């Protein structure tokens, strides 16, 4: 990524907030290095749709391939945490020193007694996973993101965590979706940034690097022209809860292979793959010559990558094509596509996760409820 100038013009006390995102090792990579991946996947099968089952509680899937996280701090004086920035959820939570689970060990844990600005509540929080849960309670404190302090931010403090959380590099989650899907209607961090006039614009954007350990960025209150070239293609939201849009079709070489007649999709930084209905994904993978293994991964011959076709996603009449170099990854045990099947019976049937987002400068515009996609510079 080339060097760039900060082009954002800030107004009044509003700021342009930049959070570098670290591209660390995934849980899959770390477990493969230790020879524990097969055992882990048998005990923790990938259930991508669990995150989006609305039960009145926050939900999250046990995604072993998430790798981007940023650093925030909570409290006075500040305590730092590695945080997954998630446009597919709305709550902020971190481990606490009162967590009794082994999975909390090795993570940064918040100590409310060491913060002079912490205020406890009687509210509980439960984050549901495909295999277990995180439970804890809610509190208020100052949350600092990119050097900007958000006052009286509600967040969750874990007291128990599912075992697989111990394999994750990041400590907790900062949800960036709408308050409508927030557990206990807790106000999300970005909503407080907007209401406290901390951001120059009611917009945030994401650049995810593919290969570099550094370079990925979350920009709060800012659209930076140095990250993209050409036009921004604006796609109106079909629902203001997740960042949900209408997808026209998915094609390969001009032939519809999935989403025939249109479907609903969400743009989600908190999901690593592109997820769709099992039948559609099976059809798509068949066109690519991929087969599903016992763990649900879509395995393909590494020698066939060069001859694979691109996959085109059409949104609001705009075509966004992904070359095989973008959706095929090579690991210790071979190559796999970034398409995974799951039937989760929500208002949407597709999740455009990091495999998709890495190919575009992605803008989440809360001012007019749109998602913008632009070609990377």
UniProtKB/TrEMBL annotation:
Gene Ontology molecular function terms on file: aspartic-type endopeptidase activity
Keyword Disulfide bond: yes
Annotated signal peptide: 1-16
Presence of the UniProt keyword Disulfide bond in the record: yes
InterPro entries assigned to the protein according to its UniProt record, in alphabetical order: Aspartic_peptidase_A1, Aspartic_peptidase_AS, Aspartic_peptidase_N, PEPTIDASE_A1, Peptidase_aspartic_dom_sf
BP term (GO), one: digestion
Alphabetized UniProt keyword annotations: Aspartyl protease, Digestion, Disulfide bond, Hydrolase, Protease, Signal
The EC number(s) this enzyme carries: 3.4.23.1
Name of one Pfam family that matches: A1_Propeptide
Domain Peptidase A1: start-end pairs: 68-374
Active site as annotated: 86, 268
Disulfide bond entries: 99-104, 259-263, 302-335
Domain of life, per lineage: Eukaryota
Similarity remark: Belongs to the peptidase A1 family.
Purpose of the protein: Shows particularly broad specificity; although bonds involving phenylalanine and leucine are preferred, many others are also cleaved to some extent.
Protein name: pepsin A
Organism: Silurus meridionalis (Southern catfish)
């Amino acid at each position: 990524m080339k060097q760039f100038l900060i082009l954002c013009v800030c107004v009044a006390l509003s700021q342009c907030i930049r959070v570098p995102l670290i591209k660390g090792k995934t849980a899959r990579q770390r477990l493969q290095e230790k020879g524990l991946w097969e055992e882990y996947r048998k005990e923790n099968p990938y259930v991508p749709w669990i995150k989006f089952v609305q039960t009145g509680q926050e939900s999250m899937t046990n995604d072993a391939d998430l790798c981007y996280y940023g650093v925030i701090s909570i409290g006075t004086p500040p305590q730092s945490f590695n945080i997954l920035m998630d446009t597919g959820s709305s709550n902020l939570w971190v481990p606490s020193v009162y967590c009794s689970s082994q999975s909390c060990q090795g993570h940064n844990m918040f100590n409310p007694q060491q913060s002079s600005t912490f205020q406890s509540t009687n509210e509980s929080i439960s984050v549901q996973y495909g295999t277990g849960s995180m439970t804890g309670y809610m509190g208020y404190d100052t949350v600092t993101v990119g050097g900007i302090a958000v006052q009286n931010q509600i967040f969750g403090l874990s007291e128990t965590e599912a075992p697989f959380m111990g394999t994750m590099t990041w400590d907790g989650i900062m949800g960036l979706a709408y308050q409508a899907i927030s557990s206990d209607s807790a106000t999300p961090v970005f909503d407080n940034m907007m209401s406290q006039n901390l951001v120059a614009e009611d917009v945030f954007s994401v650049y995810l690097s593919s290969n570099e350990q550094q370079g990925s960025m979350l920009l709060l209150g800012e659209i930076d022209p140095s990250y993209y070239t050409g036009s921004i293609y604006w796609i109106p939201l079909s629902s203001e809860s997740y960042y949900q849009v209408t997808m026209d079709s998915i094609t390969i070489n001009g032939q519809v292979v999935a989403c025939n007649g249109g479907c609903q999709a969400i743009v989600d930084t908190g999901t690593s793959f592109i997820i769709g209905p099992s039948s559609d994904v099976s059809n798509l993978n068949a066109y690519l010559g991929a087969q599903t293994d016992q763990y649900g991964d879509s395995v393909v011959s590494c020698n066939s990558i060069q001859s694979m076709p691109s996959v085109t996603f059409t949104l609001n009449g705009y075509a966004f094509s992904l070359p095989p170099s973008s959706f095929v990854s090579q690991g210790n045990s071979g190559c796999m596509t970034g398409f995974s099947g799951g039937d989760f019976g929500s208002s949407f049937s597709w999740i455009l996760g990091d495999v998709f987002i890495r190919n575009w400068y992605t803008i989440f515009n809360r001012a007019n409820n749109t998602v913008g996609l632009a070609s990377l510079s």
